[in-house]
Specification:
single chain; alpha/beta; Glucose Oxidase, domain 1; six-stranded mixed β-sheet; four-stranded parallel β-sheet; 21 helices; binds FE2/S2 (inorganic) cluster
């Protein structure tokens, strides 16, 4: 057993090298037999007090360790870069690829035979999974779990209310004092955002890919069963090492198709697209926007969760959680896809029952029929754009309007509430230079707040188009991820005030209604206006980040390098 373990290349050695590898472990008070010859399980921890959603992860890691030890393994916890959505400037997405590099190299460089990824806040899931994919040793994900539902002035709230509160304060319907009280009412427990935002979407993604134990996605962070799941996960990863069950055994094309279909059924975040494409790129699985569209099409929305619906993640768990949704999708899923517990998807979800049909509907009477993520094409987005129909307004799904263009986010902030701005509810708001290269880092600003003047008139939604992203907690008729982006001369850079833009979600089209000769003239005169950075990681990022339709990973990070260490000598 010990000779087949990767860790034996460190701890099983004789001579000076073996002495060094073991002696410095012993300074932690660890006896020889504790780690020599046992599966060494890395616990990749994104704990940080600057990532509040993951601030309980040291406790969670202790539960994983108990499971590893009980199963005869040796747990070692290690930190990696942690990306907290709320505090990191200019945007956590700028650092997703950097964190993934940290994870990849941290796993490869150290004597771990298997790894548990502790994931929570939005980017901490894709960055850890991407990095682990490029190493491809046995890997299992434990999510931190959502917060308990917030409670404010007698009603349930969570992160999607941030947008409503913002509009209410701007229109005078809510005071600044009420807003301050709402802060503590919303974030009243440990865990990540309590709606089907990006963090919960990512937790559902890993569960539907087969990378976590069943029910991982929805157990609230504060629920004691979260620790039980973590302990079971520690035991299971130790077994996975003995079975040599690796990521490449689980992350097949069928697994990715399952994840896309499940994401449609739960009304998952648009950020799902960009992260799933990046993960597929690491695994060498051919996946593109058309796969996202075609696998989403026709999948009914079964989960009635904010921002597409009414309920919260806590309700979702009590109603049965993701296994129920997956069970109800029946043969729409590849039920024989293998998962981390060694069982198939079909075996895992067999018999899962819904305890509240208002939260999880059946396919015969779905919550909504407009679901998933629609991929748009047209001369405004030659390489595609994304919209989330379930979170959009039906009356705007087919709409033609005059463009009101903001050349960057600063321009938007400076002019959006200017009484002189020529805009009405039929206008199409266009935001340029918020893509991967242009911002840089592709921030979540695509769901631009509506001009105050229109809010006061009762306008609650408008068509908005950008090369940026939207928070998974956001909603509205918002076209995102326009590719190619403005900063590299995509057609979105050529839009001018007053141009007609036509959106038709059913026909999957997004058209800039300007003739080709005029567009060619504008293209010839176009000059980039985005900031460029000439130092450090951000310089590397701007030079190497790929466009949104490829997952916005670095070009040199696609694929993997396996678990072999390049040079193996002191
Ligand atoms: Fe961390 Fe929403 S801010 S999940």
């Amino acid at each position: 057993m010990s000779t087949s373990l990767r860790s034996a290349q460190w701890f099983g050695r004789t001579g000076k090298d073996g002495f060094i590898y073991r002696a410095w472990m012993k300074n932690q008070g660890i006896p020889d037999e504790e780690f020599r010859g046992k599966p060494v399980i890395g616990i990749c921890n994104t704990w940080s007090e600057l990532t509040p959603c993951n601030a309980h992860f040291r406790e969670l890691a202790e539960s994983v360790k108990k499971g590893v030890i009980a199963a005869g393994g040796f747990p070692v916890e290690f930190p990696v870069m942690s990306l907290g959505e709320t505090l990191i400037k200019p945007t956590a997405m700028l650092y997703r690829n950097l964190a993934a590099m940290d994870v990849e190299e941290s796993i490869r460089a150290t004597p771990v035979d298997g790894v548990v990824l502790l994931c929570g806040c939005d980017k901490t899931t894709p960055s850890l999974v991407m990095g682990a994919c490029s190493v491809n040793i046995p890997t299992l994900v434990v999510s931190g779990g959502p917060m308990l539902t917030g409670r404010f002035e007698g009603r349930d709230i969570s992160t999607s209310d941030v947008w409503r509160f913002n509009d209410a304060v701007r229109s005078g319907a809510m005071t600044q004092e009420q807003l301050t009280v709402a802060e503590a009412c919303m974030c009243r427990s440990r865990g990540h955002c309590a709606v089907m935002g990006t963090a919960s979407t990512m937790a559902c993604m890993v569960e539907s890919l087969g990378l976590s134990l069943p029910s991982n996605a929805a157990i609230p962070a504060a629920d004691s069963r979260r620790k039980v799941l973590a302990q079971y996960s520690g035991a299971r990863i130790t077994e996975m090492v003995r079975e040599n069950l690796r990521l490449s055994d689980i992350l097949t094309r069928e697994a990715f198709e399952n994840a896309i279909r499940v994401n449609a059924a739960i009304g998952g975040s648009t950020n799902f697209v960009i992260h799933l494409l990046a993960i597929a790129g690491r695994m060498g699985v051919a996946l593109d926007l058309e796969d996202i569209h075609h696998n989403s099409a026709g999948i009914p929305l079964l989960a009635n969760l904010q921002p597409s619906g009414k309920y919260f993640m806590e309700d979702f768990y009590y109603a049965g959680g993701l296994p129920v949704v997956m069970n109800r999708l029946g043969d729409r899923l590849h039920r024989d896809a293998i998962t981390v517990n060694g069982r198939t998807v079909g075996e895992n979800v067999e018999g899962a029952q819904a305890w509240n049909p208002d939260v999880i509907a059946g396919p015969e009477a779905p919550f909504k029929t407009e679901t998933g993520l629609a991929v748009l094409r047209g001369n405004l987005c030659a390489d595609g754009a994304v919209i989330k129909p379930s979170a959009a307004s039906p009356h705007l799904m087919r709409h033609t309007g005059r463009a009101v263009v903001f050349r960057d986010i600063e321009d938007y902030h400076a002019r959006v509430d200017d009484p002189a701005l020529d805009i009405d509810e039929n206008s199409v708001m266009v935001l340029q230079n918020v893509g991967p290269v242009g911002y840089p880092g592709m921030p979540e600003v695509g769901n631009m707040a509506i001009p105050r003047r229109l809010l006061e008139k009762g306008v609650t939604d408008m068509v908005r188009i950008s090369d940026g992203r939207m928070s998974g907690t956001g909603f509205g008729t918002v076209v995102l991820h326009v590719s190619p982006e403005a900063a590299i001369g995509g057609a979105i850079a050529l839009v001018r005030d007053g141009d007609l833009i036509s959106l038709d979600v059913e026909a999957r089209s997004l058209t800039l209604m300007v003739d080709e000769a005029e567009l060619a003239a504008r293209r010839a005169a176009w000059q980039p206006t985005h900031p460029t950075v000439n130092r450090g990681y951000v310089q590397i990022y701007q030079r190497h980040v790929q466009q949104a339709h490829l997952g916005a990973d670095m070009d040199f990070l696609r694929g993997g390098s396996g678990s072999e260490v390049l040079r193996d000598s002191h």
